[in-house]
Amino acid sequence: MKTIAKIGIGIVASAVLLGAFGLMVITDQTAPMPIGKDQFIRFDTKTSRMQAFRQLAKIGVVKNAQALELIAKTSGQPSQFRRGTYTVRPGMNLQELVKALEKPVRTSVRLPEGYWIARTAFVLQEAEICSASEYIDLSTKPDEFRKEFPFIPAGLKSLEGFLYPDTYFFTPKLGAREVIREQLGTFRKKALPKVGDPKKLLETLNIAAMVDLETAAESERAIVSGVIHNRLRIKMPLQIDATVLYALQEWKELGPGVVNTIDSPYNTYRIPGLPPGPIASPTDKSIDAAANPTVHNYLYYMAKPDKTHFFASTYSQHLNNINKARAMK
In which domain, by residue range, is 128 found? Predict the structure, then answer.
């Protein structure tokens, strides 16, 4: 009997030791990591607690997802988290992590008017919304968005001009697809009603993009639009620097004679008519100006130092305006 009693005591003691050891392991595996920098984690759908912990372990915010799940389950923590992007960091304890995963992050991102796709892409990348390459790549696949946005013309090779510039509240790591959907939705709401004749959608966007890049003063948008329309009507080359810069995919000041060296269908100094497509994402104001140009006889405009313009109907008047503008510097 004494032997049996000793065995029983040994079993109990072993169980206690094992239990203590297991508790030590769990405590160690659920202890906060060394304090690190803030980082974003994104859930594209409603995510279970275990899935969330696995993602946190993968990026080095927690040690052991299974051990943390055991503690979270016994302490009655939320069983799932909403779709969204969250800020977390190594060093957070369980309660701090759960609190962080209940507050999705949203950030204000200004996508400027007059930016073409590649320029916008790097604004988004800088804000950690999506990678520039992902945004550029998806922007060349209009067919993937046409079912949801049927106003996108068939046969289009790029969404240039349709990605509406505005201030957006995006979540970090949102991804290019959701960004583009948001921009197309805003285009449908703000820009599409300004187009007028739907058959002239691409033509209107083409002119509007040039108006956006050529004008700083809102009062001059329709006047510059009128100049473009007048030149198109008489088959006069548009001679717009912005189209050449689009061909180069650089935003800079063109040196003397550079425009004559660029071999591109977007070089409106060498090729009459509209460029092959919009060169930027215009606002609704420029779209309205493109669809409703001011009626006048101007064929030329020259920028003043304050970014407004002198307008002229003849080349001799234009040369005079060039001299006046230079004298104002």
Answer: 107-194
